[in-house]
User: Fold this.
Amino acid sequence: MQFKSGDKVRFLNETGEGTFVRLTGKGMALVEMEDGFEVPFPVSDLVPVREHERSASRVEEPKQEYHQAATSAVVPLNPEFPDGVYLVFDPQNQKMPSAGAIDVYVLNRSNYHIFFTVSLKDGKEWICIQSGVLGPGRKADVDTMTPADIDEWQQAKTDILFYSDEPFTHIAPLSNVIRLRGVKFMKDSSYQTHLLTERKCYIAEVALIDDSVAPEEDKPFISNEELRRMMELKDRVNTAKKISVPHLKNQVMEKEVDLHIEELLDNWNGMSNAQLLDVQLKRVQQEMDAAIAAHMRKIVFIHGVGNGRLKTEVRRLLSTYKNVRIHDASFARYGVGATEAEII
Assistant:
């Protein structure tokens, strides 16, 4: 059963009723009682109060299918920052960011309208906490949390559908998952004055819209510079010292590497798209070299969906390795956002 803020609920194991406030993670929710106090209850113990069970004298607002986000006016944006959609964690206390509440919002820094949903993972299920339609240059509030609140959740997923009232270039719908590590939000050093907002905040990239990237069919098969880099990589792999195969009992044979930039860097303010891509590809190279040396069987690189540029570059780099098969990772586990390198 999915509840939204303001729903009236009763309790399976207690008498009385209250008003659903929000989910707190790990199967728990806050319910506001008649005395105004918020009390935690297991979600499994909550039962919705149906319309016909409520007082006939009370007029209820019609239910909405989604949690509709309150959107702001057009936000002034730094023209030097790349277009895209971002999930912003903006501390209310700018002097001591980790000490107070954090406003979380979706920022649409693009010329597209978007329909979005933001969901948090509770155990094996996803729970939608916010959704709405967002115009170009606008932001939508998601929630206000403390670092301790954020630590209750393991992952946040943002799903986006792009459209426009005018003729537009198609961008495929995407789903982006970020890991929420509460310890990161408890450090003041994690919040930097960002070019995107000109405030101290933590920003997670959901989708970049890079108009300078040509469609895949328009790209040359390979440039001279790329050929030179590939040959150097091949030489390095071919001349690597042979080592004896260790005893394989209890050895880790598979590995998963998340290439989302927030997993690789604590601060990437001021870095260009090319610089970010270089960091991600260097990580791929390091992990592949280590996996081959350790005689691992396979390694999965999580690159997300986005505009497909990172996926293309990752596979191009992986193709320079001998005895490596490249294919899509498990769709059931990663969707279309990961590539598996099988070392044979």
About this structure: The chain has a mean pLDDT of 77.
